[in-house]
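Troubleshooting: if your tokenizer reports a length mismatch, compare against these two reference records.
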Amino acid sequence: MPKKSDNKQKYGAEQITVLEGLDPVRKRPGMYIGSTSVDGLHHLIWEVVDNSIDEAMAGHCDHITVELLPDNLVKVSDNGRGIPVDIHKTTKTSALETVMTTLHAGGKFDGDGYKVSGGLHGVGVSVVNALSVYTKAEIFRDGKIWMQEYKRGKPKAKTKAIGKTKKTGTSITFQADPSIFDTIEFHWKKILNRLRQQAYLTKGIKITIVDKREKEQISYEFYFEGGIASYVKHLNQHKDVKHETVFYIEKEQDDVNVEVALQYNNDYQEEVFTFANNIHTPEGGMHLAGFKTALTRTLNSYARKKNILKEKDQNLTGDDVREGLTTVISVKVREPQFEGQTKSKLGNAEVKSIVDNIFSKYFEIFLEESPKQAEAIIGKCIIASRARMAARAARDSVLRKGALDGMTLPGKLADCSSRSAEKSELYIVEGDSAGGSAKQGRDRDYQAILPLRGKILNVERARLDKILANNELKNLVIAMGTNIGDQMEIEKLRYHKIIIMTDADVDGSHIRTLLLTFFYRYLKPSITGGYLYIAQPPLYKIQKGKRSEYAYNEEEKEKIIKEFEKVKKPSSTKTTGGETKKDDETDEEEEIKTTGINIQRYKGLGEMNPDQLWETTMDPVTRFMKRVTIESAEEANEIFDALMGADVAPRKHFIQTHAQYVKNLDV
């Protein structure tokens, strides 16, 4: 628990190390914050908050406040030690100015200022300053309030004391530069989700978020004494858990702090979230590898020792012991080494054995001291093992070697002639009627059509053996050519655009949700790789006389109707002595006509003829499509659990919450 430390760790100007200047940031912002999109914009908040989290992890801060202010200003405050303001011996300016205006300047590089730091790129608040039109730093330290303001990263004046105070801490206010970012409007929900996660990862810290952009202010406060154990409870809140007590351990070995929390539920998927220095590592790394090894070994050892697994029985596999597992693994490392294209994988080799040692030792004690909970966990794993063997038999029969070649492709698949995956598209359509129109309207060179019959299986409540016994899903897997689940090979994908094209009605939305659930749970690399899309067929055809246009939403419909209602009427003129005179000052005036407009609401793709379907939904020149992305795996899991899981209560709550926004509900 990060309580403010009475031990005044050495933290002055001499702890601020300078590595290089700030000039490159405004020229290539994407190198420092990932992108200039919405994600890059919010990265500014994360960088400032990370500094406060570092203070909390060092034991000098227990309260962080984030305020969204009018005019897209953001203020982040903490009650830590405050950034040093004395003169830095290298830069000859205040340490505050050095930190705010010099890239890679801070107390995290020589190991004295902070033992553990959470800044992924180490760029910190200087990059926030460089990418903001206005920044203000207020420091509460040494009994005084110190302040310095900046414009696009450059100080307006020197650091100065503007008052007295008894508190300590740092407050950074900034306004993102609209000339750099695609948008400077911050998303409340995105900020809430991120800061809730940080509060879970730093137990005992209080994080307050206040939205002051409107007259009616909104505020939230997060405080989790249980840390990641509370996080696991949150992730499992709508699930049928196998044991009530969440296993939790926090220990340190060789300067590596290890926290692990886990709990099993009756689902078939695993939810594993890993962090290093509070940074999410979606690709895992050494901490995850150590955990997986220890989990499998410990459960097998316990099951053998208690004679639950007999001599003739096979050992439980990693897949068996992770089915229905929800776990959060968090490590704090003095010098983290991040790998992978997006720096989302921990590469410190020593962490693997440390996590293995700590987790296996204390998880074994948990199993011994909680025999009923251990029995529930082992029982779940054994059922998973039996199902795995049945699923393997089913999968081998369906996806045997050579099953994807030539004649073995599904009979319903109208394949394209191109063999280039980069150029090829697969349309997954609802029903034979829409499938017929799509087959006739498509470009056969690169567009393939796979019609689905009825509503597919809800995979949220099914194991792999049952999934592969479902003809519609089996045909889809074979058509894609990638295999499924943990054996999926995304590089074998036969089409680099997989497009879900369903009707614009309730049934179509349901089928789309079922398909998205299937892709998310069993074909996730197709989403993370950017291959999955949702077609956007028009909702309306608006026609007047020989002129017709398509509307893809209500706003477009109203706009087209207004345009159709306006017709031009020539003004009357008189000619006198070779001159043309008008009855009024305008060349022509607009007359409003409200009759003669025909509006057709499309409920099904089958209502369109092939030419219309091509023109509106399949022609790359004119079509609209949405690429499916996973911005937050945790949020995605919660949505799929609520919509598709066995628990009725969260689904009922979702429907009641969003019912007021429903339009065009077909009854």
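Reference record two:
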Amino acid sequence: MFNSPTTAHSFHIPVMGLGFTADTPMKVAKYGISSVVSIMDDHMLEDLRRIYSRKLQIPYLPITDKTDDSRANRIKAYLNLAHDAVNKQMEDLKSQSFEYSIAINEYFTLLPESHGLYVLYEKMKQEVGEAKEAIQSRLKAAISPGKIDVNIMTKVDKINFDKEGNELSREYSDALSALRGFAESDLESSVVFSAGMNPALYGYAEQFADFFPDLNGKIKKGIILKVSDYRSALIQGRFLAKKGLWVSEFRIESGLNCGGHAFATDGLLIGPILEEFKNNRAELRQILFDTCQKALTDKGSHLLSEDIMPKITYQGGIGSAAEDKFLMNYYQLDGTGWGSPFLLVPEATSVDKDTLDRLIQSRKSDYYLSHASPLGVPFNNLRSSSGEEQRISRIQKNRPGSPCYKKFLSFSTEFSSKPICTASREYQNLKLKDYAEGKTSQLEMDEVLEKDCLCEGLSASVILNQGEEPRRSLKAVTICPGPNLAYFKGVFSLKEMLDHIYGKVSIALDPERPQVFVKELQLYVQHLQHEISKSLPEKTQKFETYVEKFKTNLSQGIAYYQDLIANFPIDTEEVMGNMKVQLQELKDKIRGLELAKV
């Protein structure tokens, strides 16, 4: 349930791709670590359910395409399997002896040293006899699993058709079906809505009682909004609150210093954004609380608990214990998200050996923001991935594009009334005909050929990691790490990564790694340079206004950071000294960005 006074860990593992965190809960939830599973690919989840059913020696009955509501039922079945598996792990853990078992001790040794349970655990080791047994009983009673949260990317909401080609009703669209699968599952956790507002999806949540308070004001299934700024949080939060739906957490993510799809702001930097949340937190809570209570009253429903508070967390590019600690303390956050570094932790994520080796051998230049996504949103990519190799090989063989089986990203109606995917072989062949006839520019054609099949590429790794072959032998892996991963090298144990997060030890990072605020700023300056360079020779007034606004926001962000460094010890003297120099250099670079010079 929500608003628990204590949690085991101050960080969570965000969703990564379709498959990289698909089975993460069954790896780390037993240690109290929360993580997020993408529930967009029901075919992959069904394959995983088959694999894990065999591993766990439980019956498996396939859910085929002929099954009614197959997509929602596959998602529900996999989430129930994960829920039951983690509950079984917790039962086993609590039955173990501190003297003879490793796992129960690991639960506590992985905690930050300041955590009350860690302190109590250390005290237990010094006690003997009945006093020791009493503390052990208290420790076992306090053990709780991490959350199995799920992610729905709101833009991935294709309308579906029956076998006769008739359009199915709205609740059978991809996003709404996924929500139904989660809502009808046994989980007590949250759905993370990412990529902006989807009114139909948000409204559909009203159909399920688990999203509303019970008699005691508790909510079984929460809603987490992934947002890029305060305004978005307020707009989306109020939209949901008017329906009696409470947002249990606002998960703020950097626009560019993140993995997966990148949703850049107009130069608004994460420091000022977090400051705005900090300053307006009480007001945000009150607006949403009052709105939600009124809606629940009008519905005749149970009301929220009077002490309920939305959590505020941040994720994107955090790389050191000092950064994590400053973010938590200064911005009064309830938690942070550590994503891409966990791709190097086999105990936590599912990255096949070939892809893991490619990550370790990669250079900084291999991490880039691409046009690979059929959604038309910039996508963090790895140049040396097997997915990129396959895409380029297909072009060289005059067979560009991918066979399109899953069709989750089929949204283009440029050539047909029925949407097709821009990464598909069908679409790219049609586009090449346009190019040959002079209807498509070279720049547009290059961007089209850069599209990749994310449906297959982002799900293959988890199946390969289980020693099996993905359906139709589509083994090429697309991976979407954030730029921060370029500074981590090697394979790490779960304990090594957690000790790094909590400052018990320090993983040796690339010495050129910039502080998290500076790295994001660098990415935004690069983004603006790119926007200016690709713009048409005849600059419109609208574009000029956009550039000036972007530059103003960046300059104000730099002034904010300069003031912050002058007044708060945000990191070591060496780090802050480097920040001062880098901020000034970036300030000068922004001043020199002029449209006329392009």
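Descriptive notes for reference record two:
- Residues 425 and 432 are 10 Å apart (CA to CA).
- Residues 352-478 form one domain.
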